[in-house]
Design a protein that fits this description.
This protein is α/β, with parallel strands linked by helices. It has helices spanning 2-11, 23-34, 72-75, 130-133, 135-139, 149-163, 188-200, 219-222, 251-257, 308-316, 405-412, 460-479, 544-563; strands at residues 16-19, 39-42, 101-102, 165-166, 180-181, 207-208, 261-264, 267-275, 280-288, 294-298, 301-304, 341-342, 345-351, 367-369, 386-397, 415-428, 436-444, 450-455, 483-489, 520-521, 524-529. Strand 8 (267-275) and strand 9 (280-288) form a beta hairpin. Bound molecules: flavin-adenine dinucleotide. Flavin-adenine dinucleotide binds next to helix 2, strand 8, helix 10 and helix 13.
Length: 567
């Protein structure tokens, strides 16, 4: 019996364990495997093999039973919202997989399958700058980040070169340039708006948004088996060309090719095992989602990449005599300072000029106004600011009146409408202690894991920022000569903005933070948290590029420390 146990333990022992195979977990796995570490990736969802498992990728619109929309009867029990389409239904989580308690309204989008939300994301990839890393210290909120842009810059480059990011060299300190493939162009009206900003609001810029698409694949991309983006805009089905970055197309197959990775789907991580004598984590407890059996796996280092809320809750569920309130939680801030992005503000308008121009073809990105509020100095009634997505085009329509031949003629003669332009804000939410998650004391999910309680709400700062966005875009559109200007506040609940962050924040002081400058738990150094949970503040940029850079940086640090026998 003893021998049997030793054998099992040996079989279940790796150099490194990565929890979650999404955008950040894929990077942790790739880097750890590249450094020669035998790595186990634990993924709660099913296997999704690149190309083979994209069941709707090549379907024409008429091949979908409901032409793309999902009828109410099929929505039942599915996590849905503005992202649910018939073509990506297979990537939508069933609500009973992980029921949660929303103490205050919140929407939490999850992607529970191999690759996580890297198969669902919109692939926008803007770097942070020191305006973001220095924000908390300068404006006096949260805690100071233990790193600055210079610490991250080489890792942004590392990730960008491998993932393939398209973009222009814009030379803006608030949106540092990276390692870019050629940028996608802007539409005529976006160019027009850019010119107008140059004349009327010179400190506000419009650039092509950087995105993780292969506009011009290089050897490192073809080596991954990926090829050029076809600008089909069918990305949420999974891309058979590997035209955009996903873990499935890129980091996971790369890690698998090293021969060092073991992927274990259907593995719901319950908690991390802490050994008091060794004063470190020794492994994780997993519930097999098919057999409901609890299994233990062991490793020298553990990367927690289950996405911000899950990573936080896994630490919370990892209590021990040493850490009764959750692994590494000496400070008491685990689960607190949850923040997200504020996408509530929208603006749209029409333009009657440029009648001799039209758009042709697709592109996988849009235009982008980097943050311009409170940048060089704090001069607004609210803290921080917002970046803005901008997209403009010209639609086609056909008249639907007439009878017989006339109706046929009308339907076939397509006319061009006026140019339209729309803008949506991406505001920085300031993290506050009251916005938190915690584990429910009684309610559990079907695996016996305590349910997560969300207690998060907008603040007055968010409301003021939305108002400013609406006022400013109204003014900018007016100056550009646009008509039918509409601005609105969706008042959507937090979370709908899909960029939840915080809960296991980084910081210099173990009394007020959980992670050090290398994403290691201050109090348990062989556990690294490198997804959105680590975020001390939220910036305005789409965050995933930063999580990927954190993961690559921390994985290499872990490998270095293991070599030096420091872990
Ligand atoms: C529609 C949409 C559009 C988006 N657009 C953008 C964008 O343009 N730019 C951008 O930067 N970000 C975007 N995002 C956000 C982006 O998808 C996430 O920031 C990113 O995927 C987070 O990476 P992650 O590794 O932390 O989590 P995920 O990619 O969600 O991966 C987490 C993985 O962990 C697994 N997991 C969870 N719990 C456990 C457990 N207990 N045990 C084992 N495995 C577990 C999950 O199944 C999942 O596979 C978008 C998101 C959505 C939904």
């Amino acid at each position: 019996m003893t021998n049997f146990n030793i054998d099992v333990k040996k079989k279940n022992t790796y150099d490194a364990i990565v929890i979650g195979s999404g955008a950040s977990g894929g990077w942790s796995a790739k880097e750890l495997c590249d450094r020669g570490l035998k790595t186990l990736v634990l993924e709660r969802g099913r296997k999704v093999e690149h190309i083979k498992d994209y069941s709707t990728a090549s379907k024409a619109p008429w091949e979908f039973e409901y032409r793309g929309t999902v009828p109410l009867k099929l929505r039942e029990g599915l996590q849905y919202g503005r992202f649910l389409r018939e073509e990506n239904m297979t990537f939508m989580m069933k609500e009973d997989e992980q029921p949660v308690v929303y103490e205050k309204p919140f929407r939490w989008y999850r992607g529970y399958h191999e690759g996580g939300k890297s198969l669902l994301w919109a692939r926008q990839t803007q770097r942070w700058s020191d305006f973001d890393f220095e924000g908390p210290q300068r404006d006096g909120f949260a805690v100071d980040w233990p790193i600055r842009y210079k610490d991250m810059a080489p890792w942004y480059s590392h990730v960008e070169r491998f993932a393939g990011i398209s973009g222009n060299y814009d030379g803006l300190p608030e949106l540092p340039d990276g390692e870019f493939l050629k940028a996608y162009g802007m539409s005529c009206i976006e160019e027009h708006f850019k010119e107008s900003l140059g004349k009327n609001f010179p400190e506000r810029k419009l650039v092509s948004a950087r995105c993780a698409h292969l506009s011009d694949p290089q050897a490192i991309h073809t080596e991954q088996g990926r090829t050029q983006c076809q600008s089909q805009n069918m990305c949420n089905r999974g891309c058979i060309y590997g035209g955009y970055f996903s873990s499935n197309a890129s980091t996971l197959p790369w890690a698998a090719k090293t021969g060092k990775m073991t992927m274990r789907p259907h593995s719901v991580v319950h908690s991390i095992i802490f050994d008091e004598k060794k004063n470190k984590a020794t492994g994780v407890r997993v519930i097999d989602s098919q057999s409901h059996e609890m299994i233990e796996f062991y490793a020298k280092v553990i990367f927690v990449n289950a996405s911000a809320i899950n990573s936080t809750s896994i630490l919370m569920n990892s209590s021990s005599d040493r850490f009764p309130n959750g692994l590494g939680n000496d400070s008491g801030v685990l689960g607190k300072y949850i923040a997200w992005h504020n996408y509530r503000g929208h603006a749209s308008a029409r333009f009657e000029g440029l009648k001799d121009k039209r758009t042709a073809g697709g592109r996988p990105t849009y235009a982008y106004v980097p943050r311009f509020r409170n940048l060089q100095k704090h001069d607004q009634e609210f803290f921080r600011g917002y970046a803005t997505g901008v997209s403009g085009g010209r639609g086609e329509f056909s008249r639907q009146d007439g009878i017989g031949d006339q109706l046929r003629e009308n339907l076939l003669s397509r006319e061009l409408s006026d140019w339209n332009i729309s803008a949506w804000m991406m505001g920085e939410c300031v993290p506050i202690e009251q916005n938190h998650i915690r584990l429910h004391e009684e309610l559990k999910d079907k695996y016996g894991i305590p349910q997560i309680v969300f207690s998060c709400d907008w603040t007055e700062n968010d409301d003021k920022m939305v108002q400013d966005f609406m006022d400013q875009f109204k003014a900018m559109f007016e100056q550009a000569g646009y008509t039918q200007i509409q601005v609105s506040d969706s008042h959507s609940p937090p979370g709908a903005d899909i960029h939840e962050m915080g809960g296991v924040r980084m910081g210099r002081d173990p009394k007020t933070s959980l992670l050090n400058e290398w994403n290691q738990l201050h109090a348990c150094k062989n556990v690294f948290v490198t997804d959105g949970a680590c975020m001390t503040s939220t910036g305005t940029q789409n965050p995933t590029l930063t999580y990927m850079a954190f993961s690559a940086r921390a994985a290499n640090r872990a490998a270095d420390e293991l070599t030096k026998k420091n872990l």
